[in-house]
Write a structure and sequence with these properties.
alpha+beta; Lysozyme; 5 strands; 57% helix; Bacteriophage_GH24; hydrolase; lysozyme activity
Length: 162
């Protein structure tokens, strides 16, 4: 299974393409980033990095590489069958989060505990800003969309067991 073209496009369109390296929280703030939010390193960009340009083709190549890595990790770590919507949501979540959180979600799924997986996914709505976790409003919608197929499956399972 691979991420659907629709999910790839939707995820890609959530980020504005910046054809250079930049600090993700503005001038002298955040982390050095490039393209469509590709993390380059923790902390602000050096003056040399801020002069570095990138092209649209490089962004597309990196995006496809990072999607393929997220797909690989999902396939490796999740042992239960997933439908396309679940796979798409989990790849998006994996692409956008850290391994520790991913492992908690994968473990819940492997126990067939889709409700807990959805709850964990929905709760990852803060971003590290200069060493402090801050609420990121854009993540609330993203996490709700990614976790929806798991919440739906958990609700169906609950209704069938009644």
């Amino acid at each position: 299974m691979t991420m659907s073209p629709e999910a790839r496009a939707k995820m890609r369109n959530t980020e504005k393409a910046v054809l250079k390296y930049y600090n993700d929280l503005g001038r002298n703030k955040g982390n050095c980033t490039w393209g469509i939010g590709f993390y380059h390193h923790r902390g602000v960009c050096t003056p040399e990095e801020l002069k570095r340009k990138v092209d649209a083709a490089s962004i597309d190549i990196e995006y496809n590489k990072r999607i393929a890595e997220a797909e690989r990790r999902v396939k490796l770590k999740v042992q239960v069958p997933l439908n396309q919507a679940q796979f798409d949501g989990l790849v998006s979540f994996t692409y956008n989060t850290k391994n520790v959180t991913n492992q908690e979600v994968y473990s819940a799924l492997n126990r067939n505990d889709f409700a807990t997986a959805a709850k964990i996914m929905s709760g990852v709505i803060k971003s590290d800003v200069d060493g402090k976790l801050k609420m990121a409003p854009g993540l609330i919608t993203r996490r709700a969309e990614e976790s929806a197929p798991f919440r739906n499956a958990a609700e169906i399972s609950r209704q069938e067991s009644k």
